[in-house]
Design brief:
8 helices; DNA-binding; homotetramer; 0% strand
DNA sequence: AATGAATGAGCCTTCATTCAT
DNA sequence: GATGAATGAAGGCTCATTCAT
């Protein structure tokens, strides 16, 4: 029975190390060592170190974008869509924590290829449109600036990579709920609620 | 009276390059070249590359922590304190944009010395206490979890390094106002307002 | 009867690549790729990369040496022998252009095994003897130094690998004729001819 | 008293090794070892290995081209110009033997930059024009094809790198004289001379 | 203060070769 | 015969750091 190829082991090890030490500070020798092969052997699987970064990051990035795309098409009030966005985002973060962290540290905001910029842009603009509709429909307050508000929400969620731990006691769902509740209802107590 | 030297030029150049390319990918030769001296000459100013990173980052970090400390001591309602926190944070980000970005990319959430961890922890806990008091006083809604809410706010603000540009048309003040308004009042339109 | 295998394909591909990129800069993966097999599979045909170089080069080298040996035994005037040598040399170069180019680039003048040195030496000395006899018989001018003159001729012919193209308009025969005519008659116009 | 920089030592060592083992088979470690420094230290002097190749080769190539250019402008019979070309070529080969050998092995006939192709082309065409004029003036025989004859001469001279040794008993001048005499007068004895 | 040559370790990558399947 | 994963050495190159001048 043939042992399965070690591609998955390699991507996992790379993801973990990229997250811990950063892409630039992780050597291929580190990765190879974690898998238990020689660094030259990595080149059976990849053509360059950067390819490994992209391999780590592509799937979760595509996954979350898909989810947001789908939520946008549903026929729901803006607030409910935002709630679902927050939960999908937090859920993906939870399930692909290491991979997603690498994305946010190494790809987002760095000058990378058109592929990633386009992904970032679509992700943002899809949510912006939800917020815009919320304002237009009167569901959201008139003081809401759709773009800034969206970046506020995304920032809250992405910052989770700095403090959330998947194996911790606090579930991602609860966090998502808190983040979107504060985003939607505000921290200040509403007189009539 | 200390003779002015090229120390400031060096720190500025380092900050800019660290932000653009990341700490690990910036070489001392890059920095020396930006200042117009030779690589070896840098060692008249520093003892190691890491020292340069800390030099870049120390002042703005200390500055913002000071501000938050002071705000915490004021006798104001929680909502007003949060508003001031957001403005102080955004203002520091605006004024020390490159330096602060380096801090967030290279120090925050990385395993650095006790000095930085302590700073991060104090910053967070100071704001958490403001929120806690807000909840206790009934100013903030009972569903607010002080720690998560604080991290939500900080995340929103820190994410600015991914999209805010100091020289841009949108002033940091307006952004701070939007972020804390959404944080405090929520995006959803309040029936009785 | 030996089953035809891909041996010839492999040697052809190797020859072409050795000529284009040089022996040292051609990888076995390049060669395997050109044939359409995997790198490891090459080792069913060869034991080492160098063996492939020798395989490329052995046949044409042996062929031209055989021809020169035979010409030397004929009972002809020196000038006619030289003419035949030039034609044989140019003809072999034309027919085995890629292989012969590899020989001249990678074997001739390099420190290779006794086998190749002996071949080179015999080739040279066989022609030198023809010239010597030409001088001794009074067919060739007394100022002719047999060894230098022979190296002059061989150099002219071998330099063809730098500019001759088998598929070009100018046939190798015409070139051989020009080279040996200049060698024998000289470029300067003879008063009484 | 400051020790002079080791640039010359480095180029010399590189030239020697490139000639002996070929450019591709010579490692920077070989070169550094020959000079007595570490391989990383080479990068104070060069930006890439190829730059070292060009440094080895540029001066003698430019020198010989200059000489041929000058000879072409003189008011002399074609045969005398050719004689001077042969002597200049052989003399440069003699004085810069290792460098020139590297040029012929590694640059000539390889797919290099426009700079080298242009040099090769100008060198050839300058001599071709001398021969053309010789034919037109009736100094050279009508059977002389200027381009092929020129390549014949150049080939003879360049082949010297395969057998000439500067420290040997046979001086380059004598060889040049023999090569151009055979080229001009032919090996065959002239009845009326 | 500044230089610039040198260090020495380490990095990404290539590659001839081996071998179990 | 062929595969493809793995090896292990080496190659070109980078870089933080040192130090004599």
């Amino acid at each position: 029975m043939p042992r399965p190829s070690r591609w998955n082991e390699i991507v996992d090890a790379a993801a973990k190390l990229f997250q811990e030490k950063g892409y630039a500070s992780t050597s291929l020798e580190d990765i190879a060592g974690a898998v238990g092969i020689w660094k030259g052997s990595l080149y059976h699987y990849i053509d360059s170190k950067e390819e490994l970064l992209f391999a780590v990051v592509r799937e979760p990035a595509a996954h979350i974008l898909d989810q947001i795309r789908e939520i946008a098409t549903l026929d729901l009030p803006a607030a409910e869509k935002i709630r679902r966005v927050a939960h999908a985002h937090a859920h993906t973060l939870d399930e692909t924590f290491v991979y997603a962290s690498v994305y946010l540290q190494e790809i987002a905001g760095r000058h990378h290829s058109a592929e990633w910029s386009a992904m970032d842009r679509e992700y943002l603009s899809t949510i912006v449109r939800i917020v815009e509709k919320g304002v237009a429909d009167g569901d959201f307050a008139p003081y809401v600036d759709p773009r800034i508000a969206t970046l506020t929400l995304i920032g809250s969620l992405n910052w989770m990579t700095h403090w959330y731990r998947p194996e911790g006691a606090l579930p991602a769902t609860a966090i998502a709920e808190q983040i979107c509740t504060v985003f939607l209802q505000g921290a200040v107590r509403r007189s009539t609620s």
